[in-house]
Structures are given as structure tokens and as C-alpha cells.
Amino acid sequence: MTSLHADEAFLGHYQLSHDPFAPRVPGFKFFPAQRKPVLGQLHHLARYSQLLLVVTGPQGSGKTLLRQALVASTNKQSVQSVVVSARGAGDAAGVLRQVAQALNVAQAEIGAILAQVVQLALTGQEVYLLVDDAEQLDESALEALLALAAGAPEGRPHVFLFGESSLIAALDQLSTEEERFHVIELQPYAEEETREYLAQRLEGAGQGIELFSADQISDIHESSDGWPGNINQVARDAMIEAMIASRSAVKRPSMGFNMPKKHVLAISAVVVVAVAAAWLMPGRSKAPTTGAPASEQAQLPLGQTPTPNANGSPSVEFAGSSQPMPLPLVGQSQPVMRGPLAEAAGGITEGDDGVPVEGSSAVPPTVTTTAPPAGAVAGPAPTPAARPTPAPTQVATAKPTPAPKPVEKPAAAKPAAAAKPAEKPVTVAKAAGGSWYAGQAPGNYVVQILGTSSEATAQNFVKEQGGEYRYFKKVLNGKPLYVITYGNFTSRDAAVSAIKSLPAKVQAGKPWPRTVASVQQELATTR
Description:
Blueprint: H1 8-14, H2 35-48, E1 52-56, H3 63-72, E2 79-85, H4 92-102, H5 110-122, E3 126-132, H6 139-150, E4 158-163, H7 166-174, E5 181-185, H8 191-204, H9 214-224, H10 228-251, H11 261-280, H12 294-297, H13 339-344, H14 424-438, E6 445-452, H15 455-465, E7 469-476, E8 479-489, H16 492-500, H17 504-507, E9 512-515, H18 516-526
Parallel strand pairs: 1-4, 1-5, 2-3, 3-4
Antiparallel strand pairs: 6-8, 6-9, 7-8
Helix pairs in contact: 4-6, 9-10
């Protein structure tokens, strides 16, 4: 897939009021059992601790949602919340400017801001200073926030930093002598919490958890490592893959080849006329019921005078004409099948080499001719002794042997050969990434970029990006899925840092880190 964004087709297919797995859904709040104590702990530490509070977790772990819940659960009359974003303004000047503007302070300086905090404390109001994307703060900004958290004897703001784990190392370098901050690390969801999260997301969009089977929920939890942001991406991928598969099944033609409708109708008309003509042909009711088998009749050499059978009926019959119908040459045991009728014979079963499989509809019926009209010359008077000895190649008495190959026609003799390349993608997929992943350390990390049901799309993406991009094949909901990854990293932090350096259009797909062990497990399952 080149795009995994929910559009009108996606919403219409599942009858959704909105994209249930969008990063920001207004009004959506989900707090599993493990997150509720974290929220209570933040309120408790804000009241009784004088340390700067740090909440860490990987990208998509729910830090922003927790920050929103913290603001929403405070008493608005006694707490003034100031939310600052470090994205694009990660230095001290940028952070202090945002804080001063929110508190109506003329000077963006630490002293002026603390003076305003003290004035608010005298009126019974506390200040909560909450910083999103705190991992993007530089050293000067962290120093300024630590100074604000220390405050003055008369009052101080409660500072909360929400960022990735790399933030801890930066704070450690600035707090070597004393404890100046407290860290709360978020934990991923358990599988049951993942199910509850999916259910609440879908219910908000007008659907229910029944859109996913139990196995799908387990796969989503395993692939996402239980982090909400990754759950959103993997769940959306699974729904879109299922939508594409269902639409492909509806659009797939029932015939084994594509032919314009007008050609099919024309061929059908020819077949109907031919059948009608055979039924209306003169003398049909006088066709002999005894004599040489029809297959034996078909073996007479071209131009040879037919010999009557024991009952006096001619072995070769005529259809209102003095000339016999064309018969195969000697040695050609296959009956002749005319071009238009042969092309219209859909559903022919053939082996890998293009030879019709014995017993399939590809073997055409035996040609049977009709009796001559009354008065037609049928040949010399019948003599019982003149009955010919059956040819050794006749079909009626031949021992069961493999059907000989028909005479090949240029560009049309082996229709099944065109389907052979369909086996190639499996080999390409393994060669393109399977062996490489198997040879890497299970504890390493790669960055998952996207998944696609088209191997050509995966190949084109890897070819276009080059470098450390590669892909492997897995099976999702019984269908092949080609997963593109980037890099090979010894730690999760290194993989997270690499995501920030990816091109903007790649980052737009919300790439996420995953262990090599999880990839190896999927490859083993696929085999």
C-alpha cells in the first residue's frame, strides 16, 4: 500500500463516523487499570513533592493523553495549567517566552515568572507547568525549568515534563550532586487492555470490537508491543488490508481469462447457432445405432472410400452433401476442435506444461457425423467381409495411456505457462529480506515503516529509498503482507532517534521500532 490514511472509501466500507485510529480523536480518553494510579501519583507528587516530575515512554505510549487527563482532572479554580510545547522552541528563550505569555508576564525571565507565581499563590492559585515533547529541550531549557521547579520560598510552579526516555540522560547530566527530579515510566498495555482500547476506539466511531477476531487482536497486540500509538497504526493496517482483500474478491472475474463482453456474447451466439443447426440437420433421426464406433470412423484416412458395416449402413455419413466431412489425418488421434469454439471453452484445466489434464474439460468430444439424406450415394454395396480391421491407434480399443500432447500453436499453445511467474514473488520475498533478518541478533531493533499487500509496491519503495530499507513477507488474515523496515539498531532508543532523521513523507506513516526477534518469529510462522 502506498497510503494507509483513512479516506471516504475506508470509512464507508466499515460504516464509520470517523477514523477510529487517528492520532488525535477529540473527546477520546482511555485509562486502563495501570494508568489510573499514574494519574493519581502525579496529583499526589504535585502536592507533596518539590521535585520536577518526569513522565517517560516511547513515541505513541500515551504521554499526551495522560497530560490532557492531568489538566482535565485539576480544580480549575485553584490550579492554573500552562501547557508548553518543546517542538520548534526547545531552547530556554522559547520556553520562557511561552510561559510568560500564558501568565501575562511582560518579561520572559525566570525572576519575573517566579514573581507572578508567588502573586498567584497569595490568591490561593497554584501553577502547573506542563511541557510536551520534552525530549527536544536543549540544556539551557532544562536548566531554566529546573530553576522554575526549585522556585522561591514564597512559592513555586509544579513542573511536569512529558518526553521519551532520552530525556532522563540529559537531566542526569544536570543533576549530579542532588536529586532534582522524579521519573515515572509508562508501561505498555497488556493484551486484555489492548482489546479494551480497540473496543473503545471502535465504539466511538459507531462500530464494535466484533470487527476483529480474537486472533487478529492477539496479532495486533504482539505487533504493536502494547503501545497505543502502535496499536492505532497496526489496527488500521489490518482493517485496510481486509477491505482491499474483500474488494479484490468481489472484482475478481469468474473466468480464467479477460475477454470483452461483446466478444463473449458473439461466441455464445455462434455456439447456440451451431447447436441448433446440428439438431435441425436433415436425416438426423435416421442416424445408425449400430456399426463401427464413432471414434473408429474418425480414424479413416483422408479421401478413402468408407466401407459399409455389417448392417449395410455406411460408416461415414453425409450431411446433405455429396462430399464427406473433413476427418483427421492418419496418426492424428485427437479430434479437430475449431478455433472460435476452442477459444470459447473456458475453464480448461491444464498441467504446468500446457497439456490438458486427463479427464478434464480440455479434452474435446469425439466428432460424430450425421446420416445422408434419402437417395444419396453412399458408396458400393455393403459386403460383410469387407469390414475394415480397426486401426491400431483408434480411441475405442486403445489401452489407457497418457494423452499425447496436442500440436502446439504459436503464442496460444500453453495458456497455463503465463501463470507460472506467480510463484516467483515468494522466492523474491525470501531473498529480499528473510535470510537477512534470520542472521541478526534477536535483541536488536528495526524501524517498521509500513505494510503492503503488493510486493511490487514494497520493491519499488525499497528501490526508491535505498540504503538500509528492506522488507520481509508475513501472513496476515490468511493473506500475504510485505513489511518494510529500516536499519538495524542495538537499542530501542537508537531506533527511536533514527525515526526523527527519516524523510518527512516516511515519518508521515508513523514508523515505530520493533525487535528483530518479533520479525524472526513472524518469519518462522510464515514458513
